[in-house]
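## retry 2 of 3
previous attempt timed out at serialization; input unchanged, resubmitting
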Amino acid sequence: MKNFDAIIFDMDGLLLDSERIGLVTFQQTCQQFDLGDKTELFIQCIGTNSESTKKILSGGLGYEVDFNEFWSICRERYHAETKTKSIPVKEGVTDLLKHINTLQIPVAVATSTHTEFAFQKLENAGLKNYFNTVIGGEQVNNSKPLPDIYLKAVDKLQVNASNCLALEDSENGVKSALAAGLTVIQIPDLVKPSKSLNPIKHIILNSLTEVRHFKFK
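## retry succeeded, writing output
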């Protein structure tokens, strides 16, 4: 990793085990509204910002429920579990961040979560001080899988995308980072890597504990 100019992390599902919380609160809300199993709809939202998530869910649920009511209840449930509580940190996160810190490589977060909320999540988990900057989903016009957020992050760090490493869990995040020209490692979380992603173009590892010792070509 020492040859990269910067390393950029996704947050939810990669640093923090928050996607599972999101899925549980979504399923609880679906149960409340007698909607049945809508897990596949939730999966489509992973890696997207709030506005894109709202559009996806509205399109999938709009004819079955008062969507504004559903959205409000679901968001309230999720925030109750993530705004003031410390979200569990994923395996290998702290050791990897400490190692990168010893290499003195700039580190950023590029997350679809709103910046203020992202800072709060990172602070609650004890991770905020590891990062030079946090780019939240509201800072760019287009959500992942478009490249905007990674282009914003490399510009903020004043480095070239071609010499930066991105760490992602979701397909949308991988597509975003690849489109921006970064080297990409995917650590799958809730969803296995899609066959639509060309494995030649990015690296797939089982956990962040493997990143430190990965031999980059």
